[in-house]
Amino acid sequence: MSLLAAVLSLARRLVHRIARQLQRNVIFDIALIAVVVWFISGLSFSLVEGVDPVTGLYWALVTMTTVGYGDIVPSTGAGRAIAMLTIVSGIAVYTALVSVAAGTIVEAAERRRQGYIRYRGVRHVVVIGWTPASEAAIRELRGRGYSGDIVLVTEKPAAVMRQIDIGGITIVRGDPTRRDTLLRANVPRANMVMVSTNDDAKTVLVVLAVRGLNASARIVAEALHPENVELLHKAGADIVVPTRDLGGRMLAASLLEPGAAMFVENISRAEERPIELHEMPAGPYAGRRYIDVLLELRRKGMTPVALRRQGRLIANPDDDMVIERDDVLVVVVPSTPAAQEAQQPSGSEQGAREQWQPSRTYEAS
């Protein structure tokens, strides 16, 4: 008996909760009024005209929707009065219903445009902060063929909408240091997160919050000052890019070693770049010497320049280094259709590419 009483009490509370939610819904209120008018008109018509209730309800529905088949018409004065009231009330109710429904749809679209939404997708990319670096990163993602969902978290969505012309971007408005904002962007289910806020202190807080919500996502952060790189690594960032420091080194290299600077510029160009830098899984070449793999890839138009192994970047590996199954090759690829086709991974390679094991440090050796 106690179990039955508990179930009945739970069902009663659930019904009351649903009823309260429905009472707050204007569309539900209007629909309820429409049903009441329909029943009253139909039953009144059946009593006055001497027809059965089903016929009266059929007549009321046809009259309220202004269809007017003409198969049933009032023959008494009272019936005509009921018909006039039904027509007027039906038009008013359906006009109100359509207006409220349209307003709700427009409001929902505007809230989405302004970023007041909760994103429910998974395995997406979250970009936190709207800066020149994050805008360039989003364009680069699309330019490299990434077709997945990108969620942009920003406090000023109006500025984004004025500037951005990239499709497939979902905007979530809010303070990125707040947990509820990150939850609305579904950070716990994201695959990768990029943080660029134009404030290293704020970036550290965001990285800490993101890592606390998602222990496995790849987190890439921008550091404005090189002294904050290690701090961002400790906060949980897998890769930290010191953009200003890199820019300064590029300027110096352009003066002293213009060829090297031109190479970096070519692989970094947003459009019409002659060469590109890509990663490809080295699993199919496991057990072979690096020099043999290099020669084979050169025949396909690709040039390996580095190898990533267990979070460490090995630039210009030794010729006799043996490739391991989990290694990833960094290759230079000409921007030609033939080279791009040759560089496309097989099904097993693609699966390996999608795997990501977080690592806190990346060092060149």
Q: Which terms would index this structure?
A:
disordered C terminus, transmembrane helix, 14 helices, 365 residues, alpha/beta, Rossmann fold, 3 domains, Alpha-Beta Plaits, Helix Hairpins, six-stranded parallel β-sheet, 15% strand
Detailed description of the structure:
- This protein has 365 residues and is an alpha/beta fold.
- It folds into 3 domains: 18-114, Helix Hairpins; 125-245, Rossmann fold (3-Layer(aba) Sandwich); 274-365, Alpha-Beta Plaits, CATH 3.30.70.1450.
- It is 53% helix and 15% strand.
- It has a 6-stranded parallel sheet with strand order 3-2-1-4-5-6, with helices on both faces. Strands 7-10-8-9 form a 4-stranded antiparallel sheet.
- α6 (157-163) links the parallel β2 (150-154) and β3 (169-173).
- α2 (26-49) packs across α3 (53-64), α2 (26-49) runs antiparallel to α4 and α10 packs across α11.
- It is elongated and about 105 Å long.
- It starts with a helix and ends in an 11-residue tail after the last helix.
